[in-house]
Amino acid sequence: xxxxxxxxxxxxxxxxxxxxxxxxxxxxxxxxxxxxxxxxxxxxxxxxxxxxxxxxxxxxxxxxxxxxxxxxxxxxxxxxxxxxxxxxxxxxxxxxxxxxxxxxxxxxxxxxxxxxxxxxxxxxxxxxxxxxxxxxxxxxxxxxxxxxxxxxxxxxxxxxxxxxxxxxxxxxxxxxxxxxxxxxxxxxxxxxxxxxxxxxxxxxxxxxxxxxxxxxxxxxxxxxxxxxxxxxxxxxxxxxxxxxxxxxxxxxxxxxxxxxxxxxxxxxxxxxxxxxxxxxxxxxxxxxxxxxxxxxxxxxxxxxxxxxxxxxxxxxxxxxxxxxxxxxxxxxxxxxxxxxxxxxxxxxxxxxxxxxxxxxxxxxxxxxxxxxxxxxxxxxxxxxxxxxxxxxxxxxxxxxxxxxxxxxxxxxxxxxxxxxxxxxxxxxx
Length: 429
Hints:
Elements: H1 10-31, H2 33-41, H3 63-68, E1 81-86, E2 96-100, H4 101-117, E3 125-128, H5 137-149, E4 152-155, H6 161-171, E5 175-178, H7 180-192, E6 204-207, H8 221-229, E7 233-240, E8 245-249, E9 256-257, E10 263-268, E11 280-287, E12 298-307, E13 319-320, E14 325-326, E15 331-333, E16 336-338, H9 340-347, E17 355-362, E18 368-375, H10 381-395, E19 400-403, H11 406-413, E20 424-426
Parallel strand pairs: 3-4, 3-5, 5-6, 6-7, 17-20, 18-19
Antiparallel strand pairs: 1-2, 7-8, 8-9, 9-13, 10-11, 11-12, 12-13, 12-14, 15-16, 17-18
Helix pairs in contact: 1-2, 4-5, 6-7, 7-8, 9-10
């Protein structure tokens, strides 16, 4: 199930997207209170926006715009809105997104072709290990996508290893949709209860919410821990509520594939200019085909690298490498620039660490400080020194680390309204 446009030449994809862009600009100018005002205030003549390069004539849209003018982004009447979702609020207050029936159909199509990218077909059954409630778009998208593709789906929800294993053994899903660190809990439960991991019927896991690859696409430490005990294929996926679109790996595992019929992707520098090919920049997106709340040149806050060579799977679309980090979560610590994923990778390397949470805050001088709380059955000064030495070897600096109970860390990682674990608490915001 590869859309024909994804197998087209780069020039054909560009022409196709430029036609979609003109339709989107016209729609925004006619229906969006925010963009109608935005175009006027910035002197934008929409008739002049004809090519992807012309996008640079338009200022970017930011999360601050979304938070300040949330309702002004809605392009339809309330009677046309079928569903409401909210962002997770990782980098600020949650933002509400409205969806029409057409938007839900687009969401289903996006997830169907994204699942197909990972090799999922009509004969497969997926076990959904994330919530569909709490105004969470992702769980809904996975359900709609499986339905669109014709695959079976088991809606178990998050957590509860015992219930997950009951469903796996009873219904024999071929794919799991889960936060990858939860797979370690499933492995631990299986080992404690004599469940044979070699005969589960599970072929692969679609990994959400946490990185499983290094920047060179090799598996990171978390992923290596998983496959050491459970021989399943791991697929990385990247998506957000604002994009209503996913970038999923194919079987080649060399980046998440772009769907040109659904989104325009730019990789921009600090001055909102496209970075040279091969460099890291901030992913900035323009949604295509969204009816209720389209976005134009929206800065996601995620720092990524794009890859443009054709993929061996037959798709000629742009691919995104693993997220380097979130721009607002960049930490300047003792003269070194850090992103949380690099710290997660180091902590995941220690089997003695049962769970952890990273807190970032400003000290009395206004500079960044890092405190890592870890839970371990082996509380010793030797373990702390070993972790710090590992940090110095990999990142050149060692943050403050202290022990805490698993219960205390879980309370921090799962705030009352959270829909997924929070590994970084940024108190600078």
